[in-house]
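Task: sequence in, structure out. Protein: Response regulator of citrate/malate metabolism.
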Amino acid sequence: MRSLRHQMSLLLLGSLVILAAGLISVFGWYMNHRIITETSVKAQSDLTICRELIDLKYPGSWTVRDGELYKGTVKISLNSDMVDHIAQLTGDAVTLFSGDTRTATTIRSTNGERAIGTKASMNVIDAVLKNGQMYVGDANVIGQPYQTAYLPLRADNGMIIGMLYVGIPHASEQEALEKSLIRITEIGLAWTILLSFLAWLLLRKFISPSWQEIVKGTQEPATENFALGKHSGVEEIEKLEDAFIQMAEQIQTLTGEINRSAMTNSENIQSKGNFNTIIEQFKGGETISESFPDETASFRTDPLYGLDTPWGSGENGLPKGLNKATLNQIVHYLEANHRPISTEEVAEGVKLTRVTVRRYLEFLEQQGVLKSEQKCGTVGRPVKIFIPL
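Result:
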């Protein structure tokens, strides 16, 4: 029992863990997709803000003078204060390009210095400088992946002379994703532990005792008499069933006797008075043999073959609840199968309940017609076998 309970607990715990892992995986994929989408939207929005801030603070057109980038009269090349201020406001990396070359940037190379003079990626150059389009998407920036947004810078004549860039490193995205996953994992783990504990309590309180009763019942010797305290409900149902069956059998026997009497004495039952007389005799407790002594002899049941029961010996007394027709049916079956036999087999053979058959077999055993022995059944439980004498 302990092993079974542990196996059920492990199965339940494993199911909860698999469910939690699946939910975390789906949530992780969803969060990663959301973060990429949101950073892309943020990059576009921040790019627009940067352009408006530069236009507001430095009025005038974009120009290139002596290889240097200007906005109006202000020199933009090497203007670290401007890009640092914009980066502080947006939280992004900010760069201004003169052509395809970085001329002012917050991005630093591996040696810690600003990446002035480095080139943009070829896919960015083709999209922005050559085709004049805004570029939004992943880009390699000084060997690091970024979620980027590029905007072409045009002179008054419409010529593209540079680019404005904002970017969010993928490392920041991964950090945000990891924090979200850690948080959801902690919540999921807490819920898994809580649900596992509640399931364990449920298993221990309700399911485990039921299994213990089943196992205990299969291990205890199976006798025909159960303890009233443990099986009172079952015995009451069985007694009720037995009583209904006996009542049905008695009604069936009575009906058969009436039908046979009616068939052999049709002249006597044509009148309503004669029929009422028969009914009154049954109500008054009289037997058919008293009213029709000749006819009842014609359908009287044959004596029990070789079984010296009180009925077979001519005695009329039977214990309360037993009737001759059912007893005769069971005795005939025993004669036809003259061998050691169980209650279940007799019940199956005569199409009656096991409880009913058991009472008749025990009656025959009390009269010395049968004897009983306990034998081991197919599942290790003793079975009561009745042996004709």
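The chain is about 55% helix and 15% strand.
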